Amino acid sequence: EEHSRGSxxxxxxxxxxxxxxxxxxxxxxxxxxxxxxxxxxxYVEIDVQMSSDGELVxxxxxxxxxxxxVETHYPDRAPWNxxxxxxxxxxxxxxxxxxxxEFAGTGVPTLQQVLDTLRGRAGLxxxxxxxxxxxxxxxxxVAELDGxxxxxxxxxxxxxxxxxxxxxxxEQFNELAPRVPAGLLGGPPSEAQMAELSAWADQINPxxxxxxxxxxxxxxxxxxxxxxxxxNDADRMRQLIDLGVDGVxxxxxxxLIEVVDEE
Length: 263
Ligand code: G3P
Ligand code: CA
Prior knowledge:
It comes from Blastococcus mobilis. The chain has about 260 residues and is α/β, with parallel strands linked by helices. The protein has one domain (about 10-260): TIM Barrel, CATH 3.20.20.190. It is built from eleven helices and eight strands. Helix 2 runs parallel beside helix 5. The protein is globular. Calcium ion binds near residues 45 and 127.
């Protein structure tokens, strides 16, 4: 740990900026990623999908409609699926104006741009969003991470966790990249599933509303960690830290840093 925050126990809580520091800048854009690193989150979380020409782009929804001006440019291409647009078309969109006029002209980043922004500054929590829509996305992500130096055992690029709500996909991803810590979003699983999951996965990351003391203890008994999402309220952050979670995923990493520093 490069941080020297709080007591030994609280200093172990990882601070993860959700979709970047997305309370303060448009989610899944370079300004949000950059701000997450500036605030000194331990990790920045992003969502990765694929363009029609096979490029890895950073976007939460499987359509471009909510966070870009795609409808204005392409009124006839509803429902504006990410997978139906080329990288060139996606890069020409405005992904900042919906959030605030000061972010007008901010684009949809590629995974490569996020890796460049985070390198040496913060770790990456990479969520593979809806992988069943994107044949070949696991291989493409592994190639990109490897090419950018994030898979080497002694990588100084940054720490890395890959996660998905699709647990079958994560098991396949883990076969391709066994050294990358694997996170399972959602659940929690039953105790009966834990031995099998813990044989290859490293984290169970449910909604914070599903986290109980029994769940945290079960995860730890199987040698795994839990980083629940998405917690923006300081009191709830304190409760979860008291329950023993290993990280907290938040839109407000500055609030979490203050909470951790109180301990
Ligand atoms: O990192 C956890 C969280 O991002 C999962 O939910 O919908 O924000 O991708 P969502
Ligand atoms: Ca996500």
